[in-house]
Specification:
With 206 residues, this protein is mostly helical. It has nine helices and two strands. The chain folds into two domains: 46 residues, Homeodomain-like (Arc Repressor Mutant, subunit A, Orthogonal Bundle), CATH 1.10.10; 147 residues, Tetracycline Repressor, domain 2 (Orthogonal Bundle), CATH 1.10.357.10. The termini are far apart.
């Protein structure tokens, strides 16, 4: 009889993170215990503390997976817009809604991550960083729209404030999609319309 193959350190960490995602998404944070994770990952419980010394470290690893998955979805949405920056921006705005359908387990953890931001300085710092990067992506698309349309922004806006407004719309619709029994198609249409309305108000022909 052949011996069971041993897992590498990387495989063990991935098994722990995968089990953590499953437990958090299925049962919530109250069931997020080392004993439950070890059982689900089929590893010895002390290994969890070896790789992740505390809850914060383990949850940070889970959050990184969730946010990276969402980031990739949003980048792909921009690229799907091709050479049309306006379409790329609209795609970007609805991509988190589509992500909730593609990654139902991760959306639950995304919401839990946001509940920790006011009380956890590391989560708050991480959120500030990802939102900053997101606004920079939006600003780049705004500059491309200005160039392609040969227009300027309304005096009510700057590129920075317009990017902030767009990001607020994205976060608002994503939160609604995760917390309510919403119709995805309807939410997408509303998000697209919000994007178009905002663009029409913000951009003025030269």
């Amino acid at each position: 009889m052949s011996k069971k193959a041993k897992l590498s350190a990387g495989q063990k960490k991935q098994a722990i993170l995968k089990a953590s995602i499953e437990i958090l998404s299925e049962k919530g944070p109250h069931a997020f215990k080392n004993s439950e994770v070890a059982k689900r990952a089929k590893i010895d419980q002390p290994l969890i503390s070896y790789y992740f010394p505390n809850f914060e470290a383990l949850f940070a690893g889970v959050v990184q997976i969730v946010l990276e998955d969402l980031r990739v979805a949003m980048i792909n949405a921009i690229e799907a817009g091709g050479e049309d920056p306006e379409r790329a921006l609209a795609n970007y705005m609805v991509s988190p809604l589509r992500w909730t359908v593609r990654s139902p387990k991760l959306q639950t953890i995304w919401l839990y991550f946001y509940t920790l931001i006011p009380i956890n300085k590391d989560m708050k710092a991480l959120n500030s960083q990802i939102r900053k990067v997101g606004r920079e992506r939006i600003q780049l698309l705004i500059y491309k729209i200005l160039e392609e349309r040969n227009c300027r922004l309304s005096p009510k806006y700057t590129v920075a404030t317009l990017a902030y407004s767009i990001q607020s719309i994205i976060t608002g619709y994503l939160t609604m999609q995760v917390t309510e029994d919403s119709n995805l198609e309807q939410m997408e249409k509303l998000s697209f319309q919000n994007a178009l309305d905002l663009i029409d108000k913000a951009f003025i022909k030269n």
